[in-house]
Amino acid sequence: MKRLLTGAGLTILLFVPAVASAQILVAGEGPVVYGHHHLNTTNMDAQKKFYADTLGGTVARIGSGDRQQEIIKFPNVLIFFRPMQAPTGGSIGTTVNHIGFSVPDLRPVVAKIKANGFKMITADSVAANVKVTDDIAAASPTTNLAFALGPEDVKVELVEVKSQKAPIQLHHIHFFGQMNTEMQAWYAQTFGATMLPANPGSAFVQDQLPGVFLNFTPSPTPTVGTTGRSIDHIGFEIKNLEAFTKKLEAQGIKLDRPYTKVPQLGIAIAFIKDPWGTNIEMTEGLVDVK
After folding, report:
1. Residue 281 neighbours by CB under 8 Å, 6+ apart
2. What's the pTM?
3. What three-state secondary structure class fits 234?
């Protein structure tokens, strides 16, 4: 499925989410910030080769006992994995079509992705009228993009932000759905994200939370939920999570997993789904992961 992009539609991406000194934003940046991606995988070596060796994330271990696990840290986001869990499909075709990072210079990143044996899919991911040279799309006079396919078919977008100081950081989560404006409104109402003014030339609408954009593109075909796919769920870090879950229940939102403390990881968690099937984990305590 081609992603519909125009030059005018990409100008809003020049507003760069701020990067914090910690690996994800501190709770003081807001009551809700983005926390993590959680991927199903059968090949941790490939995951580490792509996200750490190629993109520059840092491998770390968290937890204790039988709950100890490897994660990969980027500024503003942690990537968790469910090892030995074969995904039922890639991210394309689900409500979370891809995840996005920003980098100050795309060319060396794209070169390293290809040198390490991973596939670039830029030409398949932008409109036919967008010029693509050496797997980099000139989406506007000031915005360059590239798309790669990570292990187990996780689609990853890279946005060039020349003024960025960090070599790589979280930029956005990109949702696809036939009710994209309703999705935008739901995330704003549920998580307190700011709805950004619609750009008439853009192929998508946006919300913003500290450190991340939430992009919503209208899908011409039905999408499926994320559970079981390569991106199994997304995660928000929430201050006073127990009270937050009670507020959701009062609003009629069903908890798939109630507020639960996980002492081995030093966090608390809860799960919900959005109305279109996106699996969402809510956490409290990831801000303390160093």
Report:
1. 35, 36, 38, 233, 234, 235, 236, 269, 270, 271
2. 0.92
3. strand
